[in-house]
Design a protein that fits this description.
Layout (H helix, E strand, L loop, with lengths): L4 E3 L2 E5 L2 E8 L2 E8 L9 E3 L6 E5 L6 E6 L2
Antiparallel strand pairs: 1-5, 2-3, 3-4, 6-7
């Protein structure tokens, strides 16, 4: 991807999915990706949304701010 890269701080394996944790602009960033799309030990990742599903959550309490699902 050509977008900004974020250092991987933590990886959580969830079977067919992987959560990648980082920070951006002083806020925690969590990306859920298919396990087969993530290298065994990634050092950094870039975000290139496909437009299929995006969920945004409040930094403090984790409440949902917005959900986007493309048709």
């Amino acid at each position: 991807s050509e977008g900004p890269r974020f250092p991987v701080e933590l990886i959580e394996h969830l079977g067919s999915q992987v959560l990648l944790f980082s920070h951006a602009g002083g806020e925690q960033l969590v990306v859920c990706a298919p396990a087969d799309a993530v290298p065994a030990e990634p050092k950094a990742f870039a975000i290139e949304p496909t437009g299929s599903t995006v969920h945004l959550f409040e930094p403090g309490g984790g409440g949902a701010l917005a959900h986007f699902v493309s048709a």
